[in-house]
Amino acid sequence: MRPFTKFRDRRGDRRGFAWWLALVVCKPILVALRRADWRGVERLPRSGGAVLAANHVSHIDPLLVAEMLLAQDRVPRFLAKDTLFRGPVLGWWFRAAGHVKVDRAAGRAAYDDAVTAARAGCLLLVYPEASITKRPDGLPMAMKSGAVRIALEASVPLVPVAQWGAQEILPAYSGRLRWGRRRSVTVLVGEPIPLHDLRDLDQARAVELGRIRLEERLTSMVRELSGTLPSPQ
User: Fold this and answer.
1) Range of the domain at 181
2) Tell me, what's the pLDDT at 11?
3) Helix-strand-coil percent breakdown of the chain, rounded to 5?
4) What is the largest CA-CA distance in the chain?
5) Dihedral sign, CA of 23, 24, 25, 30?
6) Which among 85, 108, 123, 220 is most buried, taking Cβ atoms within 10 Å?
7) DSSP state string for 144-209
8) Distance in angstroms (rounded) separating the CA atoms of residues 169 and 224
C-alpha cells in the first residue's frame, strides 16, 4: 500500500489553486450551457471518504458532476488512467487537483492509490463503465468492478450517481458543443449501495455481488431520469 502521507494534501475538501482555476475558467461556460437540476444531494456524505460511481454519457459530464459536488462543499477526486497525468497542461491539472491515478498494468495493485486516498478522506468519482456509453439509448453498459473493490477495501460508502442531459450539450464521442440554448442536466444522487453483508465473503465473490448491485441500481436510476422503460421479460 502506498504511504498515507502521499494523500495528506488531498484529505477532506481542500480545493487548492488547480480547482479554483478550473472554477474560474469553466463555471461561466457551464452556466451558459446548462440548466442544473440536482436531486438527492442530501445523500452525499458531508465529510470523510466515499466512492461515487457515476454513469458516463459525454466528455463534459465530469465537469457537470464536479460542479454539483463543489456546490455541496465536497471536492471530487477523479479516478483516471495514468496516461492523463503525463501531459504538460492536462497532466499538470490532474496532478495539482489531487486526482488519483489508476495504473492498469499494475494488476492487483492498480487501485492501491485509490484505496489509500479513500481511507484518507477523499471523495473519489469513478466511472464504472470505464468509458462513455456506446449504447444508442444512452443507458449504462456493463460495469467493471473497480468502484466496488475500492469501497470494500477502504470500508467507505459506495454512492451511485446518475446523470442525464450532458449528451445534449456535447454528444457522446463528439468534439462539438451545442450552443444557442441552455439544456437541462439532471444529476441524481442515490442511497449508498449496501456492502456490509459482503465483507465476510471471499473477496472475488463479494466484489462481483457488489458490482451486480451497483449495475442494477445505477441503470435503474438512469432509466428514471431518461424515461426509458425496461424491456419486457
Assistant:
1) 4-226
2) 45
3) 45, 15, 40
4) 54
5) positive
6) 123
7) -SHHHHHHHHHT--EEEEEEESHHHHS-TT------SS-EEEEEEE-PPPP-GGGTTS-HHHHHHH
8) 20
Q: Which value, to the nearest 10 degrees, does the dihedral of the CA atoms of residues 115, 188, 176, 30 take?
A: -90
CATH code, domain carrying 137 = 3.40.1130.10
Domain assignment of residue 231, yes or no: no
Separation of alpha carbons 117 and 10, rounded Å: 8
Rounded average pLDDT over 174-198 = 94
- Quick one: pLDDT band at residue 73, thresholds 50, 70, 90? very high
Angle at the Cα of 220 from the Cα atoms of 147 and 44, rounded to 5 degrees: 55
CB atoms within 10 A of CB 48: 15
For residues 148 and 156, what is the distance between their CA atoms, to the nearest angstrom? 10
Residue 140 within any structural domain of the chain: yes
> Is 233 within a domain?
no
Q: Domain for residue 32, yes or no?
A: yes
* Cell numbers standing for residue 93: 491539472
- Tell me how far apart the alpha carbons of residues 126 and 143 are, in angstroms, rounded to a whole number: 11
Rg (the chain; Cα; Å): 17
Return the DSSP state at 131.
Answer: S
pLDDT band at 64 (very low <50, low <70, confident <90, very high): very high
Torsion of CA 72, 130, 110, 76, to 10 degrees: -10
Total domain count, the chain: 1
